[in-house]
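dude i think i finally got it to work??
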Amino acid sequence: MSGTTWLKLSFVVDADQVDSLSNILEVFLAQAVTSENAGKDEFYEVAFPGTPDWQKVTVTGLFAAGTELNPIIGFVNSQLTCDSSTEIPATIQALKDQDWERVWLDSFKPLQVGKDLWVCPSWCQPVEPTHRNIILDPGLAFGTGTHTTTNMCLSWLADQDLDGAKVLDYGSGSGILAIAAIFADAIHADAVDIDPLAVEACNDNASRNQMADRVSAYLPHQLSSQAPVQEYELVIANILADVIIELRDTLLLHLKANGTLLLTGILESQVERVIGAFGSNFRIQKEVQEQWCLLICEHT
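look at this
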């Protein structure tokens, strides 16, 4: 146990027990409580809005080393099990202290997308200084280009000529796609996210790429309160299928006639639902990578 500063205590429970278990772990002074899918249900990324539809969930509490965990395990079972002969299995893992920020920084490397577009961490030198380099520090926001859905959007944008276009990136995270749109010669990009930390990260990254005057970041209500309604030649939504469907009217409200709608965060099994929600007014091209789909929707 030398060098250990944390203990991870995990339980696998039914979805309807997650809130109760999380509250118990917090009462016992867990420093952090997290949940993740324990079954084969639909993928869910915590940086996206929406509610995961999981059946089995792994709930984990992080405790200081030396914490006696047996009383916590006993209390959890006394509160969450009706049958005293059936216990909820608990898993304990000792974690050694690390410089977690350093570990994360080391894992984020320059990434080439397409022929001449690169995503380069702000703490690295560009591999190809003469190419288009998105200098990025995502902070706590989603979006480094490594996730399949973001990478698919970047690959599409890398091949576009958006000369003079206005772009809306809805669910923008770090602002990586808005910045890529400017590199594709869009005249301006508005980035919208529900997380104030994402708005801050986007503004910082726009400045980092000398685009502060061409990329604007907003919370949703800040965009919706603008009059007249802002319309865009390209609207991007890299979120999740259910959220895209919920945002249908908003996305179409901001899309110019004859504009292009770029949708991703969609599993192959969800494509027909998304297409159905947007009606028959689009000619839709589908690209698939791993389990994810990118829908390129153009007015017919």
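The chain has a mean pLDDT of 87.
im so relieved honestly
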